Amino acid sequence: MKNIIGTSVFRSDAPDKARGRSVFADDLMIPGTLHVSLARARVAHAILKGVKVPPIPDGCFVFTAKDLHSNLIPSIMNEQPVLASERIRCHGEPFAIVAAPTKELADSIADSIEPELEVLGTVDSIADALDPSKPALFEKGNVCSTFHSEKGDVDRGFRESFLTVEGDFETPTQIHGFLEPEGAVTFIDEDGKMMIVASTQYAFGDLREASAVTGRPQSEIRAMAATVGGAFGGKDGYYVSVFPAVVTHLTGKPAKYIYSREENIRYGMKRHKSISHAKVGFSKDGRILAADCSILLDTGAYAVLGTSVLKLAMEVFCGAYDIPNVRLDGKLLYTNHAPGSAMKGFGAPQSAMAFENLLNRAASKLGIDPVQIRIINAIHKGQKNSMGGVHEHEIGLEEALLKFRESDFYREMTQHPEKDCGYGIAVGMKSSGLGKFVPDTCHVTIRKTGGGYIVRTSIVDLGQGSRTTLSQIAAQALGVPFEAIDMQMGCTDGNPDSGSTAASRSTYVCGNAILDAARKIREGADEATGSCAFPEPKDEAVHAFFAFLVQGAKVKTDPVTGKTDVLWMHSTTDAGRIINPALLDGQVFGGISMSIGMTLSEQIRYRDGKALENGMGNYIIPTALDVPKLTNEFVEKPEESGPFGAKGMAELPTVAVAPAITTAVCSLYEDLEINSIPIDRTAVLKSRRKR
Amino acid sequence: MKYSIHVPSTLEEAFTTRSRVGGQYLAGGTVVLAIKKPVCDLVSLSRIPGLSFIERKGDCIEIGGGTTFDELDRSALLKERLTALWQASHELAGPQIRNVATIGGNIGSMSPSADSVTALMALDASVRLFTMEGGKPCRRTVPIRELRLGEGEIIEAVVIRTNVDSSVFEKVGKRNAMAVSVVNMAVARVGKKVSVAVGSAAPNVVFCRRTSEILSKDCTDMMAAKAAILEEISPKDDRWGTVEQKRIVCANMLEKLAGEVSA
Ligand SMILES: Cc1cc2nc3c(=O)[nH]c(=O)nc-3n(C[C@H](O)[C@H](O)[C@H](O)COP(=O)(O)OP(=O)(O)OC[C@H]3O[C@@H](n4cnc5c(N)ncnc54)[C@H](O)[C@@H]3O)c2cc1C
């Protein structure tokens, strides 16, 4: 049998997608469908005293909080209502669900529903959230959660330091920018159960949320992921399928709700805006002796997955390095903005912006090569993390740095830089798995059929290609050709719960569960369930293991306009054994594009709680002409516990892009320090260019 | 949203239909159909023969109002003779939009960031307008620098003299394609006479008369020219850039483009 692990087999979802045959949630047309629209708040902060519903036409419906079995989105903080009933906490917060035979009618009814409001002052920034004179969104105040950890003697570390660098950094609110907005279709199926077909990362999440809110038993609901047109964290933890589900539950009729692009941009989940401060002390020969890192994250009106984002941002802040003395401080803050939640990178890009920029500045002050300073400090298996816990899993950071140093990129940067071009590098680190105290198990089943095997999992192919990689793992484990594997994915019915398709976990945890089931099949079973529990870190740590990468950016800036063009990004990735190199490249290149957007042009700006950006014409994502030459290589240091040695890496490539680019830009100027993104062109224009 | 689209086959019919039903002309629709305000009646110009052409006529080039930017982008004549307009067409939006967006629509949109308008102003183009008076078709030709579209007037063609020695256009957006100009600028030279126009730096695209005069006298007097252009623009902070940024970019671009046309 030919080894198919490590080969770029053809993506199994590609033919249907290329021919337009894949069925997305919005493609489902069920006769008699009610179209759903939400009555949304036009202010960002108010006491909601009541909702005035005008007379509505026959065949149309309006539901408010009192029609719900439970008005609570199940979440970590359990503080987000499905429909506002007492308080409006962000612009666009829904307070009534409207259903009508056409979308136009539903929209116009939704527009006509008037909330009775007593408007409150807006908490419109991180600074406002910390200002005690501003109103509080919740009784407990505007601090949603905090993080603190201290290792070693930080103050002594700084006293012993030869050089200390310090800075304040800022990153913007970013949207996922998936092609297909959030949405779902619901109906009662032939068995009398409610079926939810959603654009989702986790059909069991849709099912549980719908059950909790409608009171319909979980056994009376089925959920499945339609073809999903991108998710990046934005379709997990908060499932918009709850709105059509309420309609179908209460009316018995099919219902459809698809976010408009404006709803997606204004009211969908966000990457948290961050303000961070870091101070780092170095010995003369470049050892990091102390780090004091703090971060403030804007989680908007509700936490959703924000508390976990804060933990991860802190854990990886300076986590790529072996540092004896570390202080970490973080706050997750409520504001009257759209909720911040999961987005590819999950807090790591925010902290890397601070730490990696400072590390580059220190390297230049110490006269040490930027790759060398990272080799000196790189974290290894067996060493302690920032909080004092021991790394028990494979780490290939040093290998990645050594390999990066052999690259054409590094050679060009150090030996023959192109005229007028700037170069910068940065390291990124991203965990895999849901983390400590969050149950993280995956179950799959494999059944033998005439010609091959059916593998069932609730993991979803979101576009990242997991249908293909998981098939490769199954085929290899069962000793059959790739084509003999029939992947049945993303469905609650008949599928075991594999957990969410999130946290860069699927390849590892689902891959291992497939290996477990395959072993039972090889031992003679015709059908088997396989399971894997994600390893939890033992002591002080949030996650058990991590993937790493080194990235280099080559840029040019235009002295006339201040514009930055990224010309080349080179990555060296440590993700254990690579299952499918082409798909790995896809993740790397996609993640880079996403973060080029955040570095150069993407941001949501709020004015009195209202997002200025409301469409793809003014929320500026990169085009093909903004994405540079991309090259990627990897070091294969197999993770012993991973399927064929693989680690999760999906989110990793977003992490180091911003500091690599900002460092490259600054290298062209005498007096430019970029601490805030997207890069301010005026600052670039006003700086003195190196001759 | 629901539209009624009227599809006349002559300019006369288009004009009378629009006067009867109100509403707006529809060319490529990339402005008309992209705004949220519902316009119920649209009078399409796309089926009227003879609105799409690029032709040399004596010492002029004439371009039909219904010519798409893709056609302009692919015109070798334009690239060679009217470089600024070709560059504006080449960089406008992206391929999908250029396939349908027309030069008439760009002018008709009255946008301060209409890229081709900046080029046409620097090139001292004229616009031939079709209207009806007393039931009779009539036409007037006005310099684009003075253009005020009358009620129902149709842009039939743009007329540009080819005696231009050199012309350039540059735009900067927040990204490299599909971008509204943060600032755009065109500079053209006919003999010693230099003409400068700027977009996205005032409520309308502006022809910078003073700046042009200064450079026409002495194309190396950058100090005076920069001071003049900063008087002639009146940018506001908007989502694309700040006043400070737009002023710096205008001054920088002027120096660069004036240098290029005089070289
Ligand atoms: C994604 C996107 C990107 C864009 N990028 C750019 C860009 O980079 N640069 C730029 O300048 N513009 C840009 N635009 C704006 C637009 O595409 C251009 O202004 C285009 O030239 C409009 O032409 P149209 O044929 O689509 O006009 P339409 O939308 O059909 O019409 C626009 C206006 O002009 C009127 N009109 C049309 N034709 C005539 C005529 N012959 N006589 C009289 N009135 C007429 C219409 O009634 C309407 O008021 C962009 C638009 C979009 C949607």
Summarize the topology.
The complex is a heterodimer of chains A (691) and B (263).
Chain A: H1 14-18, E1 34-40, E2 46-52, E3 61-63, E4 87-88, E5 94-100, H2 103-112, E6 114-119, H3 126-130, E7 143-151, H4 154-159, E8 163-171, E9 183-188, E10 194-198, H5 203-214, E11 221-225, H6 242-251, E12 255-258, H7 261-267, E13 273-282, E14 288-300, H8 306-317, E15 325-334, H9 348-366, H10 370-377, H11 397-405, H12 408-415, E16 421-432, E17 441-448, E18 453-457, H13 466-478, E19 485-489, H14 506-522, E20 527-533, E21 545-557, E22 564-574, H15 581-600, E23 606-607, E24 610-611, E25 629-635, H16 657-666, H17 681-685
Parallel strand pairs in A: 1-12, 10-11, 14-15, 18-19, 22-25
Antiparallel strand pairs in A: 1-5, 2-4, 2-6, 3-5, 7-15, 8-13, 9-10, 9-12, 13-14, 16-21, 17-18, 17-20, 21-22, 23-24
Helix pairs in contact in A: 5-6, 8-9, 9-16, 10-11, 13-14, 15-16
Chain B: E1 4-6, H1 11-21, E2 24-26, E3 41-44, E4 54-57, E5 60-64, H2 69-73, H3 76-81, H4 83-91, H5 95-98, H6 103-108, H7 115-122, E6 126-133, E7 136-143, E8 154-161, E9 166-173, E10 181-190, E11 193-199, E12 206-207, H8 209-217, H9 222-232, H10 243-262
Parallel strand pairs in B: 1-3, 2-3
Antiparallel strand pairs in B: 4-5, 5-8, 6-7, 6-8, 9-10, 10-11, 11-12
Helix pairs in contact in B: 4-7, 8-9, 9-10
Bound molecules: flavin-adenine dinucleotide (FAD).
How would you describe the overall organization of this protein?
In chain A, helix 13 links the parallel strand 18 (453-457) and strand 19 (485-489). Chain A contains 17 helices and 25 strands. In chain A, 25% of the residues lie in helices and 25% in strands. Chain A folds into 3 domains: 14-22 and 436-533, Aldehyde Oxidoreductase, domain 4 (2-Layer Sandwich), CATH 3.30.365.10; 29-120 and 176-267, Aldehyde oxidase/xanthine dehydrogenase, a/b hammerhead (Aldehyde Oxidoreductase, domain 3, Alpha-Beta Complex), CATH 3.90.1170.50; 170-174 and 269-434 and 540-686, Aldehyde oxidase/xanthine dehydrogenase, molybdopterin binding domain (Aldehyde Oxidoreductase, domain 4, 2-Layer Sandwich). Chain A has 691 residues and is α+β, with helices and mostly antiparallel strands. Chain B is built from 10 helices and 12 strands. Chain B is globular and about 55 Å long. A 5-stranded antiparallel sheet of chain B has the order 4-5-8-6-7. Chain B has a 4-stranded antiparallel sheet with strand order 9-10-11-12, sandwiched between helices. Chain B is α+β, with helices and mostly antiparallel strands and 263 residues long. Chain B has 3 domains: 2-44, no CATH class; 54-161, Uridine Diphospho-n-acetylenolpyruvylglucosamine Reductase, domain 3; 166-262, CO dehydrogenase flavoprotein, C-terminal domain (Enolase-like, domain 1, 2-Layer Sandwich), CATH 3.30.390.50. The longest helix of chain B is centred in the C-terminal third of the chain and has 20 residues, at 243-262. The complex binds flavin-adenine dinucleotide. Flavin-adenine dinucleotide is lined by residues 24-32, 34, 45, 65, 92-93, 97, 101-102, 104-106, 108-109, 113-115, 154-155, 178 of chain B.
